[in-house]
Specification:
Radius of gyration: 22 Å
Order of helices and strands: HEEHHHHHH
Strand order of the largest sheet: 1-2
Shape: flat
Mean pLDDT: 87
Number of strands: 2
Length: about 120
């Protein structure tokens, strides 16, 4: 069964994967696993995201591929984005990170205290 069949069966309702088998090794993992966010999108939205990535994020190219206007592409991207969690690419430093930077002389005691206070 592929993701499209699974999406059709679940009709967009949330589901949990309880068993996975690693191809070739026969190892089976059981538990409760939430599918990746992209796999939880409808098949149409998955195709749209794949096209967006393949077009290197070019909205002009997306307009050409799908034959729709800029506002339509932007609207669909915004709708899909609402279903995806934001990935924090600049997380707050941990206390250990701040202390290490202080120890190496990269920041002053005052700066370290301010960073530690902000991360609370």
């Amino acid at each position: 069964m592929d993701w499209q069949e699974l999406t059709d069966l679940t009709r967009g309702k949330p589901f949990v994967v309880e068993r996975a088998r690693l191809t070739g090794s026969g190892v089976v993992i059981e538990g409760q696993f939430e599918p990746p966010q992209l796999a939880q999108l409808s098949i149409d939205d998955q195709v749209f995201v794949a096209a967006f990535v393949r077009s290197h994020g070019s909205i002009k190219e997306m307009e050409r591929i799908f034959g729709v206007s800029y506002p339509t592409i932007k609207s669909r991207l915004n709708r899909i984005a609402e279903h995806l969690d934001f990935v924090d690419t600049d997380p707050a430093p941990t206390g250990a990170d701040v202390v290490d930077r202080l120890r190496r002389g990269e920041i002053s005691v005052r700066e370290a205290l301010a960073e530690l206070e902000r991360s609370r």
